[in-house]
What we know:
Layout: E1 12-16, E2 19-28, H1 30-37, E3 47-50, E4 57-58, E5 62-65, H2 75-86, H3 90-111, H4 116-129, E6 144-145, E7 158-160, E8 165-167, H5 183-191, H6 193-201, H7 206-227, H8 234-245, H9 254-265, E9 281-285, E10 292-297, H10 304-316, H11 324-338, H12 345-359, H13 371-377, H14 379-393, E11 399-401, E12 407-409, H15 414-418, H16 423-461, H17 466-478, H18 485-489, H19 497-511
Parallel strand pairs: 3-5, 6-8
Antiparallel strand pairs: 1-2, 2-3, 4-5, 7-8, 9-10, 11-12
Amino acid sequence: MSSDQGVHFSGSRTVFQERRLPETATLAGYGALIDAYGLSVPLPRKLSAIGNHHRVVEDEIWRILTPRHAPSADLDGHLTFALKYEGLDLAVLTTLFAATGPDAIVDIVRNKPTGSYARRIWFLYEWLTGSRLNLPDAEGGRYVPVVDPEQQFATEGENAPRYRLKNNLPGTRDFCPLVFRTPRLEEFIAMDLASRARAVIADVPRDLLARTAAFLLLKDSRSSYAIEGERPPQDRIQRWGRAIGEAGRKPLDRDELLRLQQIVIGDARFIKLGFRDEGGFVGEHDRETRMPLPDHISARHEDLPSLTDGMIAFDQGASRHSDPIVSAAILAFGFVYIHPFEDGNGRLHRYLIHHVLAERGFNPPGVVFPVSAAIFERIDEYRTVLESYSARLLPLIEWEPTEKFNVQVLNDTGNFYRFFDATPHAEFLYSCVQKTIEEDLPSETAFLRNYDAFRGQIEAIVDMPARTIDLLFRFLQQNGGTLSHRARAIEFKALTDDETARIERAYAETMMVPH
Length: 515
């Protein structure tokens, strides 16, 4: 009897789960499997179908292939199509394998015991489910990678002799988001931004670089709080800045995460520190009923131990063998979706970016790229990136309000946080790092050079303490390079007209030149 008995793969259509196709076509790959098996999973960002014409049609959501690409209308056909053309979607595969059961997968492998796709399906079933199929070890077929490295980022991997495969998955069963190799990411990688950063600071004197680094560190700390809509006291900003400056020096584990949360929160009298022991969500409450209005629902607290262990394993393993910025995006955005704490998640999420980049030696020694400042400047794009997954996830979570006006998740959602497509997140983070290297770092260095030149000229005109020169500079900066009548009448009334003219000329020569 066919393993697809009772499973119906539908024909041509124009709409699938509210997504309109560019033309009438038949679902293929993951879309067909989700439809046929009624899987409750976040839809892949891009779906495939088979059209009636001998041309490929593609938009942001759909890839319509030609009739010659059509798979056989069964589990094996659509699974093979998915692995060949759509890459790995581990959330879909986990849910699919629960629906098919083991016998259907055994049939696929027995029909094609040396086939590379059959062996990959076999491996993925056992890796994702943790159960061993009633199959002898593979005896034939060349070794191929589980993840196609031309489709998605992977590690070098290690051999899995049972399947005659190389397991190059960039994570563990507890946490393994994936990133597609897009043209945009390939362009970013080709820029070699780490080398660009080293070139920017190559001729910067050590004392000037130290001042630049200190400013950028403070800027990042202040921006990270601003993203959360907070304006904490200066000492908290500086304390968090010092923590960011030490990122990458200590291994990531549960105790380190708890230590960092304590630093970022500061006053914990009204906040419960530590990992959550109840539900969590991001959003608002109804003003009248106080009922939750979630934009994002965090991972169940029951899943936090395995998810946290998975993130730690990723940081200590796979993240050290893949592109640093891609790895930072996977870890940081995975953390913020999981939201393991009651408070402090957003700032810790951005800290993890610094942690990975510093640990991998991506930034020059002593320099922290103000990634949070770049994010803050692109806050709408940042939110869009966060929603690229959370908006697809939210409708799949069954929940009810608690007596404390929190949420209690009713269905098993753990795999949705273990496995997601982090491609938009990696592209966004790369654009932020590029900005900090090509704009913020040289701009701040040039500013300090110019300021030092300005201060030198002022000291040649009039004796003035450093703090008074700073005040003078701020007045000039606020008034387009001239001293206001108020400043000349009060703070700097002792200056002569000639001195004032020379000071304004010094500002124009040093600070108003393009750089």
